[in-house]
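Late entry, written up from scratch paper. The run itself happened at the end of the previous shift, but nothing got recorded in the book at the time, so transcribing now.
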Amino acid sequence: MDSSTRITALLIEWGNGDSSALAELMPLVESELRRLARSYVRRMQPGNTMQTTAVINEAFIRLVDQNRVRWQNRAHFYGIAAKTMRRILLNHLRDKKRKKRGGGLYPVSLSCAIGVSDERSSELLALDDALNRLAVLDERKSRVVEMRYFGGLSVDETAEVLGVSRVTVIRDWTTAKAWLLREISDDRE
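Output as recorded:
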């Protein structure tokens, strides 16, 4: 049995209440979860205090608590993991920007001080706000952006998670990028 098939089988067993399946599953998905988390953390501004391991641990805790999810396959699991990681990092970013937590100030090393800017975090928050507005209009396009941009999933993996064709993902991706660019540009005017 190949790795993908084994992961899917373990997800289904775990969804059916077999806790031993979860113990066997985690080593199989850890490297992909690490890749997803690294992708998200890399997109954060310099001076980000949340590390890849912390994102993985927090996501894992939230994924284990998902008792209402009927896992379809490995791509479905990674899609939900990507969304969970995005929420974790954006919540962390919002918490850091709140005045009671020091506003826009964050500790940085001297070697990073030159490149530190609040602009990157503002861009990510603007993108998240626009993405939330897109979700109201078209949930699928929003999920395509989430999985492709934040989760680093390929067109084929995104199509598998959403249960649509490759062409639909490409069309949604193109349309959503144009819509988001317009929305973010309008917000800055």
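The chain has one domain: 3-188.
(Scratch paper discarded after transcription.)
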